[in-house]
Amino acid sequence: MIVVNELHKNYGETVALGKVSLTVEQGELFGLIGPDGAGKSSLMRVLMSLLLPDGGSATMNNLDVVRDYKKVRLITGYMPGRFSLYPDLTVEENLQFFATVFGTTIKENYHLIKDIYQQIEPYKNRRAGKLSGGMKQKLALSCALIHKPEILILDEPTTGVDAVSRKEFWEMLKRLKAMGITIMVSTPYMDEASMCDRIALIQEGHLMSVETPFAMMQAFAEDLWAVRSKKIYHTSKLLGELPSMISVNSFGQVLHLVTPKGIHTPQSIKDFLATLTESEVTVEPALATIEDVFILLMNNRKTKS
Amino acid sequence: MITKEPVITVKNMVKKFGHFVANDNLNFEVYKGEIFGFLGANGAGKTTAIRILCGLSTPTSGEMKVAGFDVFRQTENIKQNIGYMSQKFSLYEDLTIYQNIRFYGGVYGMKVAERKARTAEMLDRLGLTAYENRKIGDLPLGWKQKLAFSIAILHQPKIVFLDEPTGGVDPITRRQFWNLIYEAVEKGITVFVTTHYMDEAEYCDRVSIMADGRIVALDTPEKLKEQFNAANMDEVFLKIAR
Fold first, then answer.
1. Most Cβ neighbours (<10 Å): which of A125, A150, A262, B101?
2. What is the per-residue pLDDT for A161?
3. A161 interface with B at CB cutoff 8 Å
4. Of the candidates A132, A164, A291, which has its C-beta nearest B171's C-beta?
5. According to CATH, what is the number of the domain B6-241?
6. Spatial distance between the Cα atoms of A47 and A275, rounded to a whole number of angstroms
7. Are A35 and B178 a contacting pair at CB < 8 A?
8. Which residues of A touch B241 (CB under 8 A)?
9. Model pTM?
10. CA of B231, closest CA in chain A: separation in Å?
11. Interchain proximity A162–B168, CB inside 8 Å
């Protein structure tokens, strides 16, 4: 279990963490979702005792991350945001190195990494620096797991990784969760949120919401419309002028239009566009995605400050 | 305005590293004024191809022209006629906004008066005029990326290459970035872009998908979805690249 209590950290005038509190349950797959610079890495670095907080406290399985930092390191596996293995060592040598540092052997905990490591084992004599992005991530995860940690802290393991490798990576995390490992993982890809038990949406050092992905999407407080048109960029510009409109954003081939609850209907939106001689559109109610939730919360924060 | 006039022509492009074939006989054209999405899994050979098209790497064989210039013999001409921006390298963190612009303007051989006029116009459009003496390192990532793109097209290149320009950027900025791309296209610049966000693949006029050094699909997003019987580009990508 991870307990974070009013943790804060500043870099000069920049607030990296503004009194962040959250709890990750035993065996939970918990996602930190937010863009670069939101504070995801700072939080993880504090938890891994790589960064001292300015205030507040945190425990990992009841061990204080500052006072008991040596013990914390023994029970946690960490994958930093940047590839941090030894590029000049081979795949196998890297794994062996991390096993030895933690006083164990590859053989002893092979069952934990088997699923993942088997995929890169054919390349075990290749230098780590020569691996593709997806393979590097698999090796880094293997190295973070080799000492049988109780908690895994993964800092953006899927950034810069293609859509196929990303899906595979999340399937691996689900299997690790099934083994009882508590996992905190961060990502800038909003579509990965649905893979987590619970997620925290983080922006500028503040948690905007902590919930299950489903509850977060259900709780979307405004009306959301999917608008389709042949001239999507043009229609988007026109919708920017819709009275009481909150936001309009493109989501692939559709536009997501957000309006205050109960103000508009598909017909009223169509009528508005028709007055601007844009008539070939369809408007229907849509379900919010995590990205919609994030955008709405970001806009709310901006209007407040 | 998309025409059928090609600004990039690639015929039988091959690039080998020893026995490894990174680009295995690529054939495609990019038309003037289009947004061309260049997709593929990690290690599929995208970066290799982009480096060749930017005049940074010599192909093993093939017949390729970029902005009318040959990739074997006229790489310097190519470099003068393109812009380039990537997620990993964009601007100098220790220089101010203004110094970065001056530096890149100099690299591209822009005349001082021209550079000054375009700089003023660009900073005004981005709402950054008051910040021109801020160091790049002090700017939020979203600003940096928007600025990096604007600088990459400051010399009004024929083509701009964008290598994962929106990685890690927040969802609002990501969309603002695409608006900048549309504005560049309206000025007649051709955009060649790679991304791991599949919703962004939908914003391209045409999309090519690479796997194992080859182009395995190339068409408009609409036609690709039809061809692979998929609801969106994410599904198309998963069906092809796996």
1. B101
2. 79
3. yes
4. A291
5. 3.40.50.300
6. 56
7. no
8. 162-164
9. 0.84
10. 10
11. no
Domain boundary, last residue among A175, A191, A217: A217
Please check whether residues A7 and A89 belong to one and the same domain: yes
Identify whether residues A204 and A249 lie together within a single domain.
no
Q: What is the CATH number of the domain that holds A118?
A: 3.40.50.300
Tokens of A228: 């389709």
Q: For residue A20, is it within any domain?
A: yes
Smallest Cα distance from B63 to chain A, Å: 28
What residues pair up with A146 in beta bridges, in sequence order?
Answer: none
**Closest by alpha carbon to A293, among A203, A204, A233?**
A203
Q: In terms of DSSP bridges, do strands A254-259 and A247-251 run parallel, antiparallel, or are they unpaired?
A: antiparallel
A250–B178: do the CB atoms touch at under 8 Å? yes
Q: List CB contacts (< 8 A) between B224 and chain A.
A: none
Is some CB atom of chain B closer than 8 A to the CB atom of A163? yes
Rounded Cα distance, A177 and A91, in Å: 25
Distance from CA of B164 to the nearest CA of A (A): 8
Closest partner residue to A164 among B173, B202, B242, by Cβ? B242
The answer to whether B168 contacts A233, with C-beta atoms less than 8 Å apart, is: no
Whether residues A163 and A62 share a domain: the answer is: yes
User: Residue B41: which of A165, A188, A233 has the nearest Cβ?
Assistant: A165
Q: What is the span of the domain harbouring residue A261?
A: 221-287
Which residues lie across from A228 on neighbouring strands?
Answer: A282
Among the partner residues B168, B175, B202, nearest to A35 by beta-carbon distance: B168
The sheet carrying A63-64 orders its strands as A14-24, A2-11, A55-60, A63-64
Whether residue A177 sits in one domain with residue A108: yes
Pairing of strands B35-40, B190-194: parallel
pLDDT tens per residue across all 242 residues of chain B: 567 899 999 999 999 999 999 999 999 999 999 999 999 887 788 989 999 999 999 999 999 999 999 999 999 999 999 999 987 767 999 999 999 999 999 998 899 999 999 999 999 988 889 899 999 988 888 888 889 999 999 999 999 999 989 887 888 888 989 989 999 998 999 999 998 888 899 999 999 999 989 999 999 999 999 999 999 998 999 888 76
| A23 and A109 within one domain | yes
Q: Are residues A171 and A100 in the same domain?
A: yes
Q: Which residues in chain B are closer than 8 Å to A160, comparing Cβ atoms? A: 42, 87, 164, 167, 196
Q: Do A22 and A81 reside in the same domain of the chain?
A: yes
